[in-house]
Design a protein that fits this description.
By secondary structure, the chain is α+β, with helices and mostly antiparallel strands. It folds into two domains: 1-31; 32-213, Lipocalin (Beta Barrel), CATH 2.40.128. The longest helix has 30 residues, at 2-31. It has helices at 2-31, 101-110; strands spanning 33-37, 43-50, 55-59, 63-68, 86-92, 118-128, 138-148, 151-164, 168-178, 190-191, 194-195, 199-213.
């Protein structure tokens, strides 16, 4: 009988502990602030070179979301737990446009758009670069995974995060990349087997990403 009572007591304690942990998880989830990408005020550009001229493709479409601790980004300068917001970014390959339709078609072909229609980014963590107490543009070093043409690589880049009108946030950043790092062959169009232009392997991605609180 005593053994049975002891087992029941142990089960009750375990259930109470699980309930407390679940309640704490619900509180933490409720405390997070959800931001969704806006259909305007965002821009991503990809700059590169070729044997004929430099080139740029751009897109105003940057989708995704961000879930952060309240008081972000300033709170992340003193609160280590706030340095790992849930951030997922999506850029449709079809939305990237240059000055020429044929160039866009070649780019889409080399990015394997028929199989991989999106460029995706997932944040791993932030590292503060601004001192505690900074307001306005807050600087971080962002580490995350970037997926292009089905190939995922870890990327480290500087970003700034600031508040914008309406309670939203704007994230600005830039990073150099190599096409071949993602198994993307630099385009080299040819006529009768003779290359007429050769694209450089090195590119630079620049972006301004606007998000607003979820309503």
């Amino acid at each position: 009988m005593k053994k049975l009572i002891g087992n029941m007591t142990g089960i009750a304690v375990a259930l109470a502990l699980l309930a407390a942990l679940a309640a704490r998880a619900d509180e933490n989830a409720a405390a997070m602030v959800r931001y969704n990408a806006t259909p305007t005020n965002s821009l991503v550009s990809m700059d590169g070179t070729s044997t004929i001229h430099d080139w740029t493709v751009t897109s105003p479409l940057i989708g995704g979301y961000m879930e952060t601790a309240p008081g972000f980004p300033e709170c992340a300068l003193t609160n280590a737990a706030a340095l790992k917001p849930d951030v997922h970014v999506i850029i449709p390959v079809r939305s990237l446009k240059s000055y020429a339709k044929r160039m866009d078609e070649v780019m889409q072909e080399h990015l394997k758009m028929d199989k991989f229609s999106k460029i995706e980014y997932q944040l791993i963590e932030l590292k503060p670069k601004s001192p505690p107490g900074t307001t306005g543009k807050v600087e971080f070093e962002a580490t995350g995974t970037l997926t292009v043409s089905g190939e995922t690589r870890t990327n480290v880049m500087p970003v700034t995060i600031e508040h914008v009108e309406g309670g939203g946030l704007k994230v600005t950043g830039s990073t150099p990349l190599k096409m071949t790092s993602f198994k993307v062959e630099p385009p080299a169009p040819s006529i009768l087997g003779m290359p007429i232009i050769k694209t450089g392997d090195d590119i630079t991605i620049k972006f301004e990403w606007a998000v607003m609180p979820k309503k």
